[in-house]
Fold:
Amino acid sequence: MESKNKKENKAVVLKVLRNFEIESKPIPTAKPRNVIVRIHTVGICGSDVHYWAHGKCGPFEIEKGKSLILGHESSGIIDSVGEGVKHLKPGDRVALEPGVPCRYCESCRSGRYNLCPDVQFLATPPYDGSLTNYIEHPADFCYKMPDHMTFEEGALLEPLSVGAHACRRGGVKAGSHCLITGAGPIGLVMLLVARASGATKIIVTDFMENRLEVAKKLGADEVFKATDSDIVEKVRNASSKISQTFECSGAESALLLAIRATQQGGKILSIGRSSKPLQNIPLFEAADKEIDIMGSFRYHDTYPQALELVASGQINVKPLVTHRFTLEESQKAFELAESGGDGAIKIAIVVDSQS
Structure:
């Protein structure tokens, strides 16, 4: 069963670094247990910008001579369903979880499917993303949104899930004192989820004043300029009981601050990614304080929680979106996302403004 909308499948394709082309693509047909989604909104993630500008992000790299469709923070409308899909129907508004695991490996069977070595993650080479009108996606990785949720909120469930996973790994609870280094989109959703998880003191650092202002508006108790020479003392004076630090910038200086500001027996969650190896990290200081330094990679089983937090009104992600562009304006959108100018925090691309 399919919707009656006129169908055209335009895609924003990266063939040459920093340069998009818009191409017409075939409209996919849903295989069993899959659905076709008419994409409405896509958020630009830092990883998208890395691929656009450098052709790689961490260990993932676009193969020479290959193209890539970017975008993985996505929401849209079910256009058609494949055989065996019972819980979704054409017209349903959904948020898409972008990482589809193999379901059979040890990581998948143990419940940590985010660590699946064969995960097919949207906009991670060699898999195309969602900056296109129509994509095929497994039905069980599409989450129906209530009518009062916007498509932007649905797209933001993806970064919100990063925060939910990190808070769960870090054990944030009522009374926790948290430090967040980096007030980009991930740092800001960390702030929202940490507060919703019960944290009573949240300190945020960044080198950009406008981002610190947003963090303050979203509920941070204290904000500090990361470049201040006395940043360690400022954070310690604000709280001597930091139980969890969420490092969201990837900067070596931020990890150093985390080690020196986190209390004995606390935890540091490494979320941000650096383009260069970290060289001068005093691990002996972390060892002497018995600080656990933990990795936090994407998420698993967090979309229902993130959806509930937004749908219930407990978390408001709307202020994170500062700029909106059409599909045809993707080039301009990515240029702004890279520069961070004009107070940009989260940039949304409206793929289908008619929905």
Summary: The CA atoms of residues 73 and 116 lie 20 Å apart. The chain has eleven helices and 20 strands.
